[in-house]
From TrEMBL:
Occurrences of domain Large ribosomal subunit protein eL14 (ranges): 47-120
Lineage of origin: Eukaryota, Metazoa, Spiralia, Lophotrochozoa, Platyhelminthes
Alphabetical UniProt keywords: Ribonucleoprotein, Ribosomal protein
Protein family according to the UniProt entry: Belongs to the eukaryotic ribosomal protein eL14 family.
Record's protein name: Large ribosomal subunit protein eL14
Source domain of life: Eukaryota
PANTHER family: 60S RIBOSOMAL PROTEIN L14 (PTHR11127), LARGE RIBOSOMAL SUBUNIT PROTEIN EL14 (PTHR11127:SF2)
Length: 155
C-alpha cells in the first residue's frame, strides 16, 4: 500500500489554484491553523500572505528551513534546492503548460488537433488488431489437420 507523503509542512512547495496568483508556485513558511498557512514566493511573484489550503495544491518538492523564516531565507532555500528545475519536471507543471497552450488555440488549430487525434487513434486501433491476430495465429498448433469424419455411402 502506498503511503501519503505530501504533508502540509514548512518548506513544502505549493501551487496556487484560485485567485489572482493562479498557477504560481509558492512555499509554505508557517502553519497558522488547520485551514490556513503563511506562504511566500519571492521569485514567482507571490507576496508573503496567509492563504487558505483550499487555494493550494501541494507538490512533492520540499525544502529544509526553520518555520517562520524571513523572505531572504526562503529565497536562499528556493535557490539552493533548485526548485524551478524540479518544478518544471513535475506532472502538475506539465499539465498547467498544456492547458495554457490549448487555451490559446484558434478554431483552425483545434480542427487540426482533432484530425491528428483521429489519425493517431486509427493507427493505434490497426496496431492493436494486428497484434491480436498475431496472438491468435500463434495459439494454433502447426501439426496435423483435424481428421474428417467418414461419409456414409448411399444405397
Amino acid at each position: 500500500m502506498v503511503q501519503f507523503k505530501t504533508f502540509v509542512q514548512p518548506g513544502r512547495v505549493a501551487v496556487v489554484t484560485k485567485g489572482p496568483e493562479l498557477n504560481k508556485t509558492c512555499m509554505i513558511v508557517e502553519i497558522i491553523d488547520q485551514n490556513r498557512v503563511l506562504v511566500d514566493g519571492p521569485l514567482t511573484g507571490v507576496k508573503r500572505q496567509p492563504m487558505n489550503l483550499k487555494r493550494l495544491q501541494l507538490t512533492p518538492i520540499l525544502c529544509k528551513f526553520s518555520h517562520g523564516s524571513k523572505t531572504v531565507a526562503v529565497t536562499g532555500a528556493w535557490k539552493q534546492n533548485k526548485v524551478e528545475e524540479k518544478w518544471s519536471k513535475t506532472m502538475i507543471c506539465k499539465r498547467i503548460k498544456r492547458k495554457e497552450i490549448r487555451s490559446k488555440l484558434t478554431d483552425f488549430d483545434r480542427f487540426q488537433v482533432m484530425i491528428a487525434r483521429k489519425k493517431r487513434s486509427a493507427l493505434l486501433r490497426d496496431a492493436a488488431i494486428r497484434h491480436s491476430l498475431k496472438k491468435k495465429s500463434a495459439k494454433k498448433p502447426a501439426g496435423k489437420p483435424a481428421a474428417k469424419k467418414p461419409v456414409k455411402a448411399k444405397k
